[in-house]
Structures are given as C-alpha cells and as structure tokens.
Amino acid sequence: MAVAVQMDFDGGTLEQYDEVCRRMGLTPKGPGPAGAISHFATMTESGLRIVDVWETKEQFDTFAQEQIGPFSMEAGMAGPPAIQMFDVHNYFTPGS
C-alpha cells in the first residue's frame, strides 16, 4: 500500500535540503529514487517540510535509514525530522 510521509526538520533550511539532494544524486525536477512516487519540499514557520508518497512504507524506511538520516546529519540539520505517515487511498501520475 502506498504511504504519504510528512517530514518536518525543525530549523532546517532550503540550503541544507539542496545539499542533501546533491549528496543523494537527485536533481530538481529529475527522477526520484526507486519506490518514490512524488515529492515536494517547502518552508514552514519552524523550518523545512518535505512530503513524499512512496509505493510502500518499507521502501521509505530503507531510504530514510540509508540516505535521509546520514545525509541530513552531514548537511548540518539539527536532528531527525518529526515524521507523520498516512495510508494513501489514491494518487495521480503525470499525464502524457
């Protein structure tokens, strides 16, 4: 089952986000990692918010452990994000 994941990095910045993406080998508007369906990043009053949709929770968990955690620490983020997960009933993909 697809899951939506909201990650809030308190005090996180767009510069740190860009650095994490660079370390992951991801480019703006480019393809995401295997298992990721959609992604966006924005700023909130308290820091950086990232919202993803993944094919499965297990794919997200693996990616978070192998890449999000280590690379966000290397980029200087203060700590792990607050995470909320939601079961996804439906999602849409880009049209042709």
On the 0 to 100 scale, the average pLDDT is: 95
Main structural class: alpha+beta
Helix content: 25-40%
* Count of DSSP H/I helices: 2
SSE sequence, one letter per element: EHEEHE
Taken as a percent bin, the fraction of beta residues is 25-35%
Radius of gyration: 13 Å
Question: Major sheet: order of its strands?
Answer: 2-3-1-4
Question: Could you state the oligomeric state of the chains shown?
Answer: single chain
Terminal CA distance reads 25 Å
What does the overall shape look like?
globular
Compute the number of strand runs: 4
Poorly predicted tracts of residues: none
Task: Characterize the main sheet.
Answer: 4 strands, antiparallel
Briefly characterize the structure.
The chain is an alpha+beta fold and 96 residues long. It contains two helices and four strands. It is globular.
Any overview of this molecule?
- With 96 residues, this protein is an alpha+beta fold.
- Helix content is 30%, strand content 31%.
- The chain has two helices and four strands, in the order E-H-E-E-H-E.
- The chain has helices at residues 14-24, 57-74; strands spanning 3-10, 36-43, 47-54, 82-87.
- A four-stranded antiparallel β-sheet has the order 2-3-1-4.
- Helix 1 packs across helix 2 (57-74).
- It starts with a strand and ends in a 9-residue tail after the last strand.
- The model has no long low-confidence stretch (mean pLDDT 95).
Keywords:
96 residues, 4-stranded antiparallel β-sheet, 2 helices, 31% strand
Layout of strands and helices, then pairs:
Elements: E1 3-10, H1 14-24, E2 36-43, E3 47-54, H2 57-74, E4 82-87
Antiparallel strand pairs: 1-3, 1-4, 2-3
Helix pairs in contact: 1-2
